[in-house]
What does this fold into?
Amino acid sequence: MEHESQRKLIGNCLEHVGHDVTKVDTFHNAMELLRSSDFDLILSDVHLQNGGSVFDFLRWVKGDPHMRAIPFVCFSAEPPEIGKYLADGVRTAARSLGAARYITMEHFNGPLLLQEIEWLIPQERTGSYYLGDGSGTDGHESKQIELTN
It folds into this structure.
């Protein structure tokens, strides 16, 4: 996400339901973090501007045997006009490179984002929000990474 406010909004949405969210601001910082920690999901801005494209990042993740199984989600909130125009081609390319999802939102919608990604997170790591018992988290934290510009 280009703006800190969008990163914060997405992070707050995911943390509200019990996920441990790690935010990084560049492709290279994400690479360093992914080499040293384990994550259940990678959520990456489609329109990266700091050190590489989303395709470079996706190729790198899916090319590493230790990270290959991590679901990779390409996300675009409030895409620019050119982003809207190119969305179908970018979606097709991202999926062919191994992205699990390509999500575009004209305006950020937290419940919709959660609905789009919940099936990608291992059930034993989702917390009781997804199980519907209303008791908060189940003691397991799901780690996610959000790559932003």
Notes: The two ends are 6 Å apart (CA to CA). The first helix runs from residue 4 to 16. Helices lie at 4-16, 27-36, 54-63, 81-96, 110-117, 128-131.
